[in-house]
Amino acid sequence: MSNQAIEKLSPFKNLTDEQAQLVDEVILFAKQHLTQDFPAVYTILGDAGTGKSIVLSHLFARLQQAARVQSDSPFYGTHNYFLVNHPEVLKVYKQIAGPIKTLLKKDYQRPTSFINQLDKNNATADIVVIDEAHLLLSKPDHYNNFYHENQLLEIIKRAKVVVLVFDQYQVLRMKSFWTLDRLKDLIAPYPHQSYQLKHQFRMTASDDLIAWFNQLTNGLIEPLPENACDHYDFRIFDDAEKMRQTIVKRNQEVGLSRILSTSGYPSTLDGGKHYICEGDFKMPWDQYNFTATPWAELPQTIDEVGSIYTCQGFDLNYAGIIIGPVISQKPGTNQLQVNLDRFTDTEAFKKRADLTDPDQIIHYEKRMILNALNVILKRGVKGTYLYAHDPLLRQTLFELGQALNA
């Protein structure tokens, strides 16, 4: 594994003053509630790239240091766990734990494994830290051996203190359906505190360009800010193959540069290759990654197209984004149109008993598709390239790019 993903989440990475203060605040919160008779919850909110995960990494390293070697600490002897429902991200945390004596690989688990293991041993946890809590299951999923109604609720029942990070704009599947209101309702019966991280750390892009991305993922196509390319390589292509060739060059120069796409192209988990074709461009979707190395860090994935499931939570140096057939431009407007009939991720929108209003379901499904675009738009640290399948959207975006460079 390359060091980039590990360095990003390493507990030895320097924190900003705000992040360090937040870790101290959560430590104090945990100390205050560790001896109470009922669970307490601390929520860290923030968009993609705002540093939520590095805060958790530092926090957990401090807790485990205290739990295992600091006999005068109130955390000494506590049983604490770090959960993440994303197999690629979990690989990175386990790699981090390897060389650090006070962090064990078994400290890091998938939520279902944690719940089932504690039940099997008739045990409870002291402090549970949850990364990417927006990926927690909020309905039963028998395929993944989860038979309860909500993973977060089950985790809270088995812990004294729960610390989680949450981003409502990274909710991508009905089985992990969350809104901020749903989260607030679930934790309302427990003592709780929250903090919002706002500063974008991942991308070297200007705040104005980040705001433009946010507007796009809210369905509005606005003129590009004049500083869109300041200290950031932002380009819009009308040829997907030329974009791929440029990404290959960036990958040769600095590494960790990949093509990513939204849904809308053939995609089935059947072990075979399914191709994205756009003019002269033809590449297969990402294959299932059986290795301990995250998808983007495997050299051969320069010849694959990444999905939200392989890139969520990870940094790339350069990201070439294909906005697929599932998103187009509404003719005669500056608005995006979500085409549910072109959505090809059949697993994402499984029905759930607590959502029955057809209009509400359609609203949430469209929001999740735009959330997926939001996730892949915020991967590129040094640069982002865009290409759209829809001819009208492709022309509109390309002309916006041309106007910027005029």
UniProtKB/TrEMBL annotation:
Q: Which residues form a coiled coil?
A: none
Task: Give every Schlafen group 3-like DNA/RNA helicase domain span.
Answer: 40-390
From which domain of life does this come? Bacteria
Matching InterPro entries: P-loop_NTPase (IPR027417), SLFN_3-like_DNA/RNA_helicase (IPR018647)
**What name appears for this protein in its UniProt entry?**
DNA replication initiation protein
